Amino acid sequence: MDFPVPMRRRNRLQDYDYSQGGAYYVTICAQYKKCLFGYVIDGPDGPIMQVNKLGRIVEAHIRAISDRYPTIEVVRACVMPNHVHLLLFFDPEKTHPALSTVINQFKGAASKSAGKPLWQKGYYDHVIRDEAEYRQIGSYIEHNAAKWKSDDYYTAAL
Fold this sequence. Notes:
158 residues; alpha+beta
């Protein structure tokens, strides 16, 4: 008996050059969406993300993206318990590697530093098309910990 093989949903824009200048919003989930990177705790002004050792490793590799790729700016980033959000800006006047190269290098380097696999396969991306969207996504990333319990990736701490 033949069982149908589920088709993996394509989550990249077809015929789009992901190495061109512009802004990109990326979400990368932890392996099995486990809370590997810390916890959201109550802070003096509301919920804040408290990263653990693995979260600090991930933060260090986020900061290293612009060192490795000087034409790419990490505009905003946040490490959450089981995922990471990045707002990246590729300088339109420069040449860049493809977004997939940047993300795969980041994921591999962070996992190598951690000494174990950290990420699920793939990632989610969105090409930012205008200034309003850019600001809205930047604000979402900046305030992500405050909205943790309503986040699509929310998992109660074990």
